[in-house]
Amino acid sequence: MIHDLRAELKPATVERFCLAARNMLDTSRGMITRALQQGFHVEKKADASFLTSVDLDVEQQLRRMIIEQFPDHGIVGEEFPPHLPAAAYQWIMDPIDGTEDFAQGIPTFGTILALYYHGLPLLGVLDHPRLDMRVWAAYGMGTHKNDQRIRLDELPAAAVDGSERVMLGARANFIRYRDDGRCFDAVARAHPNVRIYRTCFAHACVASGSADAMVEYHVRHWDIAATRILVEEAGGRYEALQEFTTPDGGKAYSAVFGKPALVERLVTILRE
Predict the structure, then answer these.
(1) What are the backbone angles phi and psi of residue 206, rounded to the nearest 5°?
(2) Is 158's pLDDT higher than 80?
(3) Which end of the chain lies in a sparser environment, N or C, as judged by fewer CB atoms within 10 Å?
(4) pTM strictly above 0.90
């Protein structure tokens, strides 16, 4: 059995990181809210994905706050190069997950912030400014939606019949780097009443119990960095399916997460 180094941390240390994360996301939420009121610049990256001035400003500000408070911690973000990649503590962020939604006025975008310790998730937060919703978890502290503690009610294995609330990313995600479209099709056939979202809003729904499980394919580390601890601290299951190198040299990940019995069924469908 592998020793979990997180267990050696004092609760006061974890609470300190939680307070710092809350302050950071209060700041980022304020920046995003002002930008929505005052306007912002939008452009497209080489891969045709959206990029706004707010993505850059928020990530820069979060990086500044981390470096000021935790100068020996590493940082991984979507928009700028890694900082101290060999550090034991690594903050992982996506300043605006769902930039296209943000730019087009769809409120399901959010900010993702996670802290890892020796490669294991220590805390994770999904902050949705337009929905006034923040789902967060920390090791040993449970999962919370705003101020409410969340526990995922289990589905008995016998009750898993295809009618559950399953979230999927867009089919385009499944064929982004290699063609796993058949996996999307298999889940959609087994659960025809799926909900499809391309942002961390779907992860927040699963972690807070509004949905039962999610199948997520071909996302980057910052897209999914907060999800495992959010689900596990709520009593759910997180099952990694894939990790592979993308053409640009990065990594892509696929996973299933949510209520354990349903996750088991979905994993079986996907692996078949």
Answers:
(1) -70, -45
(2) no
(3) N
(4) yes
